Amino acid sequence: MKDKFIKRLAFLLLCLSFSCSDNEVELVFADLPTKRIEAKITAVKQLLLASQEGWKMTYFTDDTSLGGFTYIFRFFEDGTVAMDSDFGDTAGTTTTSLWSVDFGATVKLNFTTKNKIHELSDAANVPDEGLTGQGYRGSFEFLFSKTEGENLVFEAVRDNTPVLFEKATREDWENLSKNDEIINLLNGELFYTLNNTRQVFEYDANRRFATNRNQQTTNTDFGIGFSPNGIVVSPEITDANGIKHKTFTLNNSKSAFVSKQGNFEIAIVNLPFNINQIWQINITENEVSELFANTFAAVTLENTRVWNETLWQNLLFGNVTLNNSPGSGILFYSFTDVDAEEGFLVQYFLRFSGIQDKPKLLDISRIDGGFNWSFYTYLDPVITLIVNNAPFETALNTPNNPTEIKLTSTINSEVWFVIKLNN
Amino acid sequence: MKKLVYIFFSLLFIYGCSEEKQLTESNLDTDTPALNEIDIFLRENFTTPYNIEVFYKWNPNKVDFNRFLFPPNTETVISAMQAIKTIWLDTYNEIAGENFVKLIAPREIVLVGGFNINPSGTITLGLAEGGKRITFFNTDFVDLKDKEELVRFVATIQHEYTHILNQNIPFDREVYEEITPSGYTAQWFNSNDNDSRELGFISAYARSNEDEDFAEMVTALLSNSNNEYNAIIDAITNEQAKTDIKAKEAIIVKYFKTEFNLDIYELQRVAAENVEKVLNSYER
């Protein structure tokens, strides 16, 4: 009996001695998680505040379909941030909003009230219909990743796109508007030569994106960001020697961008004028050649024969975007009732391109029939006349912002027509 | 002997784990953040009197991450919230008493600067979530000096607040949905307001379901003066449609009277006056 009692007592004592054991946990890290998070938030805040002239970044929101947008911002202790950009309606002005450093997936910079950078995330502000509801696919929250020398590396919260914040200088603020000169320089095509093959890219100014003409080669497409004296591309372009090229400077003749990383360049092929406007061709004696007029007269007759409609004796040329059918080319109008101006629009898409070292020439080639074309294929002789006699020599009424241009075939001088800016 | 053992154990219990650490300060930063002019306005007009928090700074947890949205411009916040206060809060305060909105209110109002564009191409103006939160979209694009835009903007909260009232006390849905049972459609956005009125609905959106129909009816009543509202109804040519809308109106009048002891026509009168008050404040 006594034995049993002692055993029980010993057992209880043992229990008690362990129940009061030291429960201090040895920390794996230097401090508690909350303290470390708070410290990190403070540290990132201090990093951002430390740069006297702020930071600049060229943000490629999605380099598979869009280019880069440059922002310069300076953070202040009172929670405000001043910002300028080479993108958007208020580019060239400094606008102020609020910012904070918060904790999300990790410590992040949050531009908490509206400023220029939010224009990239404005669902109603899109480069084209393809991005309806998505704006320019941008973020305005950036997860802090690491420091890289004097630079800060962040990741966009939406898709973890890496973004580099570089220390800005006073010159960066002053020279930002010079990006516009480079932006306005590009309106047509770009090309580079790789393994003796010319890779030609169509440049979309709205998206700041270059797409390879050869649609089989899609992995060469790249987005373009701008600097005061050149461009930055993303993804980087790898040359035949395996060297990667990212930063380019405009050469003196403004005909190419030369790589800073080595012997490689991207040539600019511009159009002789802004074709991406609505131009009009009037089928009258002094505005089109006899051959052009006769070809048009023949299809006018055919149109009356087939549909008993009256073909409008004018054509729209250049930007012929219709609501659901965007693009460039040519637009016919076939009246069912001339007085009431009722009828059908007929659209044919054309490709307009420049020719390197021949700044006055405009090349025109076929793409495809557009809206209603399948009902009016007999209008094709007009298209054939134009594309078979391209390229055209262009004579502008004024060199800057021309309103009237005469296009004369370099193949057959009997083919010419005048285009006038349609207001 | 037994006694001694018990005393021994008691002592062990008392002294064994006696060491208690004192609580230290929180590791989190609990300081009151610096308040700017907007924060002070919102605290004084919404948070302190009504326990409604207004979020204008970006908080990704309050919105749909899959939409491309952005926070409002700081310059628009005070004027937008002042308009909401005058036309919505002050109206209910005057007619229903100060405690009405204090007791039944959204606890959070979220302001979003940009448009909320749906995959169908329609634009969502506002959201009410679980009776707790009302979200206003495109606050940056509203011209509050323009009567039509002002009314449309505040209509969002009149509409969403109706949902909150319904979530507190449901309306007689069975009777309501029998008035125009065949007119409800998920493709409501294919029709316009005028066509919808000829079918017995006050707006196109009212056709989406009976809950929205009810909220749209209340919104129409509180977004127009009595004369303006009657003019809308008089302009309908289809007599059956007129009768249907009036039947819906009767249910709403009864709902406000019996459930909340409120005369909706009084709310309508004061709301219309307050719209003018906001417009006049800009003209000064």
Quickly list its features:
heterodimer, A: 423 residues, alpha+beta, nine-stranded antiparallel β-sheet, eight-stranded antiparallel β-barrel, 6 helices, elongated, B: 284 residues, alpha/beta, four-stranded mixed β-sheet, two-stranded antiparallel ribbon, 11 helices
Distance between the termini of chain A: 114 Å
% residues in beta strands of chain A? 35-45%
Strand order of the largest sheet of chain B: 1-2-6-5
Low-confidence parts of chain A: none
Give the structural class of chain A.
alpha+beta
Trace the largest sheet of chain A across and list its strands: 4-3-2-1-9-8-7-6-5
Write down the overall geometry of chain A: elongated
Q: Proportion of β residues of chain B?
A: 5-15%
User: How many helical stretches of chain B?
Assistant: 11
Oligomer: heterodimer
Task: Say how many strands of chain B there are.
Answer: 6
Summed over residues and divided by their number, the pLDDT of chain B gives a mean of 90
What is the terminal separation of chain B in angstroms?
95 Å
Alpha-beta content class of chain B:
alpha/beta
Question: Largest interface: which pair?
Answer: A-B, 35 and 34 residues
C-alpha Rg of chain B, in Å?
Answer: 26 Å
The proportion of residues forming helix of chain A, as a percent range, comes to 10-25%
**N-to-C series of helices and strands of chain B:** HHEHHEEEEEHHHHHHH
- Mean pLDDT level of chain A: 91
Radius of gyration of chain A: 31 Å
Could you characterize the architecture of this molecule?
The complex is a heterodimer of chains A (423) and B (284). Chain A has a nine-stranded antiparallel beta sheet, covered by helices on one side. Chain A has an eight-stranded antiparallel β-barrel with strand order 10-11-12-13-14-15-16-17. In chain A, strands 18-20-21-22-23-24-25-26 form an eight-stranded antiparallel beta barrel. The longest helix of chain A has 18 residues, at 2-19. In chain A, 18% of the residues lie in helices and 39% in strands. Chain A has helices spanning 2-19, 33-50, 170-175, 179-185, 290-307, 380-388, and strands spanning 55-60, 68-75, 80-85, 95-98, 100-103, 107-110, 141-148, 151-156, 162-167, 189-194, 197-204, 209-212, 222-227, 230-238, 244-250, 256-259, 265-269, 278-282, 310-311, 314-319, 328-337, 342-355, 358-369, 392-396, 404-409, 416-421. The termini of chain A are far apart. Chain A has six helices and 26 strands. Chain B is an alpha/beta fold. Chain B has a four-stranded mixed beta sheet with strand order 1-2-6-5, with helices on one face. The model of chain B has no long low-confidence stretch (mean pLDDT 90). Classes of the chains: A alpha+beta (423), B alpha/beta (284). At the A-B interface, α1 and α2 of A face α1 and β3 of B.
